[in-house]
Task: inverse folding
């Protein structure tokens, strides 16, 4: 995806462009052919579509084995949403934390579309919510086959996110934005659960 | 001669050791003095142990107007100690460039027992609470990233962050933890009421106060529960809705119609020094509050079951209640010199 200038068109026929696309991924793990799960990192990654490097993940020191899939969570663990001031990728200076209704914005999509009735034809989706019934974290498992001959293998994984899947069923004419926990956020979270693929 | 040189060398090394230690003291741990009868605080001190230096930094931040966009408003600007850290004489909180918000300034004390913050309970942790007024454009109007950059360029902060956290690194997490340390020391359990409850020699309620306490226990205590004088819940107390304010309360946070007009039950501690009252500060006099419960409620769908019949209060009960509430003023707290405003010099 190219931020800024490129025009895209969604299934509802709205043309749009994207100026900002950021999201959190966390709890990465690999599953080997026997079904054993190897945790890769407890880190929470903030991915920025404008920064290609942030979409590549390097996990060092993998145990030997034959792996068949990779799993991760889209979003930030509920506990980290309610245990006070965090640092690093979770630092609120990153603009991914709601101040008036505490909790992380799991995914942020901003741009413009002529179909939007918002001022400046803006589209603004800040998707979050960590408490039942409006939880927006989603688990993803993708096929990913690698063989590690010996301990110490380094896995480099490149992920790709499909914006059309994210916006499936959304018409900017009807919904140009959503910035609180709620049903519309849950629906978009159900979409983003399916938007990823492994590129390499 | 050789011996003398060795002694001198030894003395010199010892001197270096002492100087070295004196130059780099670690932060000094601080223990809050809390009455034994209280439940365990909700705030997890294991993740942010109190230190003298951390509290000092938090206090400095609290009273520093550089935390606002045009350096005109500090936390202490609205949270005034003599008003139990509420805002004296202002119905609605106001911020930079004369801007006004839609809610009144809550008092600050006993925060370490509080699970959620703000009138609608939208903020879920003491440490993230300050981000809200700092960044709200009608309050301090400051971008958090810009604020951290501003503090990073300040010599005093570099020194104070180092003293509190070991290195000069200024980041939002450290800033928020330091502010929380200072706010954690705002403890109010030294009122006359507390002395009476602790059976301190020579302290008793007058007959009027005792009468008021009885009325309080019968008619107020289920929501304003002792010893905090709040049960920390959110309820619709029947305060009439004002179309010009259009404040839907807790529903703004949950999108749930059952939360319409529900607001946090405030503590009654220090209540007589912290007027005005209600989430929008519409009552400047506590007798207006009594009158509202007695005959001025608006009983919509979400009115609290405990309050749906109002609280009938006779003139005598109101007078005695006033006398009792007066015993909840903690003069030690509102005059505590360790919480007092400090001069920020650079």
Result:
């Amino acid at each position: 995806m190219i931020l800024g200038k490129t025009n895209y068109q969604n299934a509802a026929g709205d043309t749009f462009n994207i100026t900002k696309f950021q999201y959190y991924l966390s709890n990465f793990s690999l599953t080997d052919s026997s079904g054993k799960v190897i945790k890769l990192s407890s880190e929470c990654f903030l991915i920025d579509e404008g920064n290609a490097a942030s979409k590549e993940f390097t996990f060092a020191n993998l145990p030997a084995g034959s792996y068949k899939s990779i799993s991760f969570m889209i979003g930030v663990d509920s506990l980290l949403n309610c245990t006070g001031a965090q640092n690093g990728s979770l630092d609120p200076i990153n603009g991914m934390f709601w101040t008036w209704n505490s909790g992380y914005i799991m995914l942020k999509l901003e741009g413009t579309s002529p179909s939007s009735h918002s001022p400046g034809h803006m589209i603004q989706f800040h998707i979050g919510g960590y408490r039942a019934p409006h939880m927006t974290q989603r688990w993803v498992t993708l096929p990913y086959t690698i063989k590690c001959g010996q301990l110490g293998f380094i896995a480099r994984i490149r992920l790709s996110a499909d914006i059309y899947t994210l916006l499936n069923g959304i018409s900017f004419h009807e919904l140009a934005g959503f910035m609180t926990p709620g049903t519309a956020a849950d629906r978009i979270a159900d979409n983003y659960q399916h938007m990823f693929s492994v590129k390499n | 001669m050789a011996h003398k040189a060795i002694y001198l060398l030894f003395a010199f090394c010892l001197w270096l050791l002492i100087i070295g230690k004196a130059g780099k003291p670690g932060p000094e741990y601080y223990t809050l003095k809390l009455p034994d009868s209280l439940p365990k605080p909700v705030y997890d001190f294991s993740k942010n142990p109190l230190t003298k230096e951390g509290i000092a930094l938090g206090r400095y931040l609290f009273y520093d107007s550089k935390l606002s966009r045009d350096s005109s408003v500090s936390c202490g600007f609205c949270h005034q100690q003599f008003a139990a850290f509420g805002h004296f004489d202002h119905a609605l909180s106001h911020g930079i460039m004369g801007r006004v918000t839609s809610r009144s300034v809550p008092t600050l004390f006993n925060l370490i027992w509080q699970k959620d913050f703000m009138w609608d309970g939208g903020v879920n942790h003491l440490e993230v609470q300050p981000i809200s007024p700092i960044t709200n454009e009608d309050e301090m109007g400051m971008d958090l990233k810009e604020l951290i950059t501003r503090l990073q360029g300040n010599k005093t902060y570099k020194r104070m962050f180092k003293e509190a956290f070991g290195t000069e690194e200024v980041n939002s997490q450290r800033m928020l933890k330091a502010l929380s340390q200072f706010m954690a020391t705002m403890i109010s359990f030294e009122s006359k009421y507390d002395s009476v409850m602790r059976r301190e020699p020579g302290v008793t309620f007058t007959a009027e106060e005792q009468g008021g306490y009885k009325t309080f226990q019968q008619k107020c205590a289920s929501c304003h529960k002792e010893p905090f004088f709040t049960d920390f819940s959110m309820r619709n107390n029947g305060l009439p809705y004002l179309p010009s304010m259009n404040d839907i309360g807790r529903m703004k946070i949950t999108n749930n119609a059952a939360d319409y007009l529900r607001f946090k039950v405030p503590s009654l501690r220090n209540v007589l020094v912290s007027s005005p009252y209600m989430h929008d500060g519409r009552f400047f006099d506590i007798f207006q509050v009594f009158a509202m419960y007695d005959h001025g409620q608006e009983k919509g769908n979400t009115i609290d079951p405990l309050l749906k019949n109002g609280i009938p209060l006779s003139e005598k009960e109101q007078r005695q209640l006033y006398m009792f509430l007066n015993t909840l003023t903690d003069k030690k707290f509102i005059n505590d010199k360790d919480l007092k405003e400090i001069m920020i010099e650079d």
User: Anything to note?
Assistant: The interface with chain A takes residues 44, 47-48, 118, 122-128, 131-132, 135-136, 144-145, 148, 171-173, 176-177, 180, 252-253, 255 of chain B (CB under 8 Å). Strands of chain B lie at 234-235, 263-264.
